[in-house]
Specification:
With 695 residues, this protein is of the alpha/beta class. The chain has five domains: 8-118, Isoleucyl-tRNA Synthetase, domain 2 (Alpha-Beta Complex); 150-202 and 242-312, Rossmann fold (3-Layer(aba) Sandwich); 348-513, Orthogonal Bundle (Isoleucyl-tRNA Synthetase, Domain 1), CATH 1.10.730; 531-624; 627-693, Helix Hairpins (Orthogonal Bundle). 49% of the residues lie in helices and 12% in strands. It is built from 25 helices and 20 strands. A four-stranded mixed β-sheet has the order 2-3-1-4, with helices on one face. Strands 18-17-20-19 form a four-stranded mixed β-sheet. A three-stranded parallel β-sheet has the order 6-14-13. A hairpin with a 7-residue loop joins strand 2 (33-35) and strand 3 (43-48). The longest helix is centred in the last third of the chain and has 33 residues, at 662-694. The chain is elongated and about 115 Å long.
Length: 695
């Protein structure tokens, strides 16, 4: 029988030869005995097993259970003996006969030479395979059979599975529950002894002169072990402790209760903190640590150690690679916090999706550092525009304003009603996201509301009330809304960004408690949905005017006139916010015409449709020198046409299209398409301006 092997020195540990039962080449040999070469006639059985791949090598597999994990399982399944031919120093032992005492690699060369000499070697050929090596020393790792301590896992796993089935334990995200169940359903007995210098020493003492497998005592310490041994074996007995330590994961599995005084379950810490509510950890140790904590908790306390397991992803570099010293892509969190701030780093990590790895990039960190600065500057704006701390009367008026009733909300002006309604919706969304452990969703919802609603729109709108409004009640209302919205944003953000939010909170006057112990915002507060729709219309109008100003390169400081054409009900609420419209659109407030009909100079204006029933007309003469703009656009059109013709000429050349790299050709096509679009837009604007000049 011809076998192929990369480790001929394990020949002395072979206990069988296996072939596939459907391999016709060897069917006649199954059930017979084979002689192992160079062993003075030792016989091994020839067996059939479906594990053998008939296409791999010669289709004949030598079974060395003492030196191969797969062979070990086959031997255990079939009841074959297990032979170990190697010492722990890498030399061959007495099982190897004449080769005993030789180093494994030296024995490999000698054995092959002897096989060649006895005409038992067929051929030698190069073969690439994965060789396990020591992480520290680089030595080739040798699988060996040795006696270890094991834990029988099936009974433990069964109860841990039932904990999830009965809802006593919830794993989040839910998709990891399948992985948890798969691991525990197919669990093997757990080897818990390790040959390491550091760790919890295995609490087993053996009897000098007795067999370790049969005579030992288990105790909490050496004194207790000796007393037990003397009771069983007499006063003259000598004992020694097992030199191995417990697997780190075994020790870690005891953590939820061993830190609280267990096994003394009467301790206050144990009664108060066990079981816990939520465990938050990485998805990569769901089995190594989480499942084992669950099994140990149930086994030793009768209770699941926590109700929820929330799994986060791994932190990878910006290219999605795992961080390692060899790649040089390790990001030190301390350096990151020094550069971007602790809150920015926390917020960046929390914005990831549960259970998914995060590619940590400087762009994300920079963005959230800017968010932190924006939050800080918003706090400064509030403090500069709220009454002085010493003005108790003003603060009494300010703090008396509440927005938790329908009536109070309905009385607010449009921008205030819009932002308070948005805040109430945000509180509901974020509270639900927190309850469901959707932390990434909660972070994004707060980010969007603060930046895109509160900072960009309401703070800017409030300036019409705070500066030169001449209406004291409007100023107080704006101040009250600014304070109300901002302090609730701080509450929602605090779990993500505890440091900057606490600093800002305590900087606000009349804070009774620290933010960390402040009550969570109430949910299901009233909402004025009509204010949402109306302010969105106002936003559309402002955006439209801003876009036109940008298109025509109107100087930022220049105020222009406008005619707003709308239905009566729309004009009613737009007119009340004329100052907001003027401030945010850079319009001349004295020259905003609100009307139901078209302006007389409509054909000399840029027309904006903000929404159904809401339009605006901006006189061109206010924005640009029309004749100069016509001349500028004519030159631009000529230049664009020349560039476009050049690109078309390249694309019309067969030699370019056929010979140039595909990405180059694709790039030229994209440029041609962009140029064509720019030409069309420029022509349309030029036509419009020329018609205005002629008019």
């Amino acid at each position: 029988m011809t076998i192929a092997t990369t480790r001929p020195e394990t020949l002395f540990g072979d206990v069988a030869i296996a072939v596939n039962p459907e391999d016709e080449r060897y069917a006649k040999y199954v059930g017979k005995l084979a002689i192992v070469p160079l062993t003075f006639g030792r016989h091994v059985p020839i067996i059939a097993d479906r594990y053998v791949d008939p296409e791999f090598g010669t289709g004949v597999l030598k079974i060395s259970p003492g030196h191969d994990q797969n062979d070990y399982h086959i031997a255990r399944k079939l009841g074959l003996p297990i032979l170990n031919v190697m010492n722990k120093d890498g030399t061959l032992n007495d099982v190897a006969g004449l080769y005993s005492g030789m180093d494994r690699f030296e024995a490999r060369e000698k054995l092959w030479s002897d096989l060649v000499e006895t005409n038992l070697a067929v051929k030698k050929e190069p073969y690439t395979l994965r060789v396990p090596r020591s992480q520290r020393g680089g030595e080739v790792i040798e699988p060996l059979i040795s006696k270890q301590w094991f834990v029988t896992m099936e009974p433990l796993a069964e109860r841990a599975l039932h904990a999830v089935e009965k809802g006593q334990l919830t794993i989040l995200p839910e998709r990891f529950e399948k992985i948890y169940n798969n691991w525990l359903t197919n669990i093997k007995d757990w080897c818990i002894s390790r040959q390491l210098w550091w760790g919890h020493r295995i609490p087993v003492w053996y009897i000098v002169g007795k067999k370790c497998e049969e005579d030992y005592v288990v105790a909490r310490n050496a004194e207790e072990a000796l007393a037990k041994a003397q009771e069983k074996y007499g006063k003259s007995v000598e004992i020694y402790q097992d030199p191995d330590v417990l697997d780190t994961w075994f020790s870690s599995a005891l953590w939820p209760f061993s830190t609280l005084g267990w096994p003394d379950v009467s301790r206050e810490d144990f009664k108060h903190f066990y079981p816990a509510t939520v465990l938050e950890t990485g998805h990569d140790i769901l089995f190594f640590w989480v499942a084992r904590m669950v099994m140990m908790g149930i086994e030793f306390t009768g209770t699941v150690p926590f109700s929820y397991v929330y799994l986060h992803g791994l932190i990878r570099d910006s290219e999605g690679r795992k961080m390692s010293k060899s790649l040089g892509n390790v990001i030190d969190p301390l350096d990151t916090m020094n550069e971007y701030g602790t809150d920015a780093l926390r917020f960046t990590l929390c914005m990831g999706t549960a259970g998914q790895d995060i590619n940590l990039s400087t762009e994300r960190l920079t963005s959230n550092k800017a968010f932190t600065n924006k939050l800080w500057n918003a706090g400064k704006f509030l403090l500069q525009n709220l009454p002085e701390r010493s003005d108790a009367t003003a603060w009494d008026l300010l703090l008396a304003n509440k927005f938790d009733t329908e009536a109070a909300l309905q009385q607010l002006p449009l921008p205030e009603g819009w932002v308070v309604t948005g805040l109430h919706e945000l509180i509901d969304k974020v509270s639900i996201s927190y309850e469901k452990f959707y932390f990434g969703d909660a972070a994004r919802e707060i980010y969007d509301f603060f930046w895109s609603h509160f900072a960009d729109w309401y703070i800017e709108s409030s300036k019409t009330r705070l500066y030169h409004s001449g209406d004291g009640s409007a100023t107080i209302t704006a101040q009250s809304v600014l304070l109300y919205v901002f302090e609730n944003i701080l509450k929602l953000l605090h779990p993500f960004m505890p440091f900057v939010t606490e600093e800002l909170w305590q900087a606000l006057p009349y804070r009774k408690d620290a933010l960390i112990v402040a009550p969570w915002p109430s949910t299901d507060l009233p909402k004025n949905l009509l204010s949402i729709k109306r302010f969105q219309n106002l936003q559309s109008l402002i955006r439209g005017i801003r876009n036109v100003r940008a298109e025509y390169s109107v100087e930022p400081a220049k105020r222009i006139s406008a005619s707003v054409v709308a239905t009566v009900d729309v004009l009613e609420y737009i007119s009340k916010e004329k100052q907001v419209l003027a401030l945010l659109s850079k319009l001349d407030a004295q020259n905003i015409n609100l009307t139901e009909s078209l302006p007389g100079d409509a054909n000399q204006c840029v027309h904006i449709v903000a929404d159904e029933g809401l339009e605006a007309y901006l006189p061109l003469a206010d924005m640009v020198d029309v004749s100069a703009e016509v001349e500028r656009l004519s030159k631009r059109l000529s230049k664009l046409q020349t560039e476009y013709d050049t690109l078309l000429a390249r694309l019309s050349s067969p030699s370019f299209v056929e010979k140039a790299p595909e990405n180059i050709v694709r790039g030229v096509r994209e440029k041609a398409s962009e140029a064509e679009e720019k030409i069309s837009l420029t022509k349309n604007r030029l036509t419009f301006l020329q018609s205005t000049v002629s008019t």
